[in-house]
Amino acid sequence: MPTPTKGPRLGGGPAHERLMLANLAAALFEHKRITTTVTKAKRLKPYAERLVTFAKRGDLASRRRVLGLISDKGVVHELFTDIAGAVANRDGGYTRITKIGNRKGDNAPMAVIELVLEPVSPKQAVVAEATNAAAKAAPAAEAPAAEEEVVETEAAETEEAPAAEAEAAEAEAAETEEAETEEAPAAEDKK
Asked: Which tens digit of pLDDT belongs to each residue from 138-172?
């Protein structure tokens, strides 16, 4: 947890700062991105990320802690269902701050703070999807594999084991190549 800052608290007292951060966090979770000053965005980042961490836990105690800070039940529900599911594989860094220049009226530095909801990296998402598909296909492929083992044992009895093993290895290699070519277009369609 970051150390508290010294001096004025965003132009008010500590209670006003807590309320401002809670309202900014609620707006961030509702709209997924908000425009505010750089100072407020930097103060909001650890606050919002802590709430997302509570949401990833997903238990009743965490929901009640977040409801103690954000009073809008609809926003808390969205945080626990949609946002927590989208960042389940992410270990931190749930928000991103982008500076956008100064405000026209008072020349205050402005920034956009947004939730990072995309996967950790596209390549890792594709690899995870491929491993899941391979795990689902493995039980279906076990039945033909059992038949191949019976054929191999019969071939071993007739002393043609090396040729049968070579054929089985070639068949398995062909099956894995077919599975990879079928999964690759499916992964590209989702991008």
From this structure: 876 565 555 555 555 554 454 555 555 566 666 66
Q: How far apart are the first and last CA of the chain?
A: 36
How far, in Å, CA of 185 to CA of 180, rounded?
Answer: 9
What are the backbone angles phi and psi of residue 82, rounded to the nearest 5°?
Answer: -80, -55
The tokens of 187 are what?
């992964």
Contact 89, 119 (CB under 8 A): yes
Are 24 and 40 in contact, with CB atoms under 8 Å apart? Answer: yes
Name the strand (E) or helix (H) holding 185: helix 161-190
DSSP string, 105-164: TT--EEEEEEE--S-S-HHHHHHHHHHHHHHHHHHHHHHHHHHHHHHHHHHHHTT-HHHH
Which two structure tokens, joined as six digits, stand for 70? 């954000």
Cα separation, 157 vs 116, in Å, equals 61
Question: Tell me: the pLDDT tens digits for 48-103?
Answer: 999 999 999 999 999 999 999 999 999 999 999 999 999 998 888 999 999 999 99
pTM, rounded to two decimals = 0.63
- Residue where the block lists tokens 């802590």: 50
